[in-house]
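<purpose> Linking amino acid order to shape
<body> The protein record starts here
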Amino acid sequence: METTSVPRWDEERHIAAGARTVTILSFGAAAATRARQLLSSFDGCRTDWMCLPDEWGETAARVLGSRLGGARIGWRLVLVGPEAAVLSAGAAARGGGLLDAEILPIPIDTADRTVYCGHCHTAHVATVEVGGCTTCPTCRTNLVVYHHVSRMHGAYLGFMSDAEERP
């Protein structure tokens, strides 16, 4: 689809020049291998790497918040892991003041998606394709996963699957 906000990960695999410090956050053991390979690609930069749990959560948010608090000009962030974690971490980083050009997203698994319920305004992670359906665990609405990704929420939009059929 030409008009979609679903990430085109191959086109987004770049980071702004001028990096002096690079932080790599990897989510889960599977992402650690890829992150280790990336370390040598930032020669000439001070690089630190943190291995985090598979999913975005309090621990990852605290680590990212700490790094954002100490960020200076020339700091870049690399996110490696499942798409759901990479999108959530990217949303938090943008909320903390980073620009898209300062974030390098490298998803290694796109099976799970964070879906934002447009009805009760909560998000949940589901193994679902774009265009597929999932049930919101909060309001129990059957949601279609739309081809729109909110960079602010780090999630795909979900809307009621039978909205047009309801009176």
Q: What stands out?
A: The radius of gyration is 17 Å. The beta strands are 21-27, 46-52, 75-82, 103-109, 112-117, 123-127, 133-135, 142-150, 155-160. DSSP finds three helices and nine strands in the chain.
